[in-house]
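Now for a chain:

_____
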Amino acid sequence: MACKAGSNQIYSGSDQDSAIADYAYFKAIAYDKKPIEVGSKKANGFGLYDLSGNVYEWVEPTASYQGLAGYHTIKGGSWLSSANSLRCAHRAFVVDGDFELDTGFRLVISEKK
């Protein structure tokens, strides 16, 4: 839901392959070979940054997809990923307890009005 920002877009911020680099930092353009500062690319329709690319997001403590146990689900792709892994629908799985250089988690703080 957050990745697509209420739309049917393939990637966070766009459904056009030609626009991926405007919204995501990934293998084809990761010249520094490390993540970049959050917000360096365009935000999606909800104003959220880096839901495609930069670092994978740990979204579930234990994978419930296809009965995998001992894994957690990650989404969004990273600076090490190909464009295919940046799709909102893409999921990958990492062994619980493993340390991955391209995986993190998201903190969201709402503004007081």
About this structure: The radius of gyration is 14 Å. The first helix runs from residue 20 to 23.
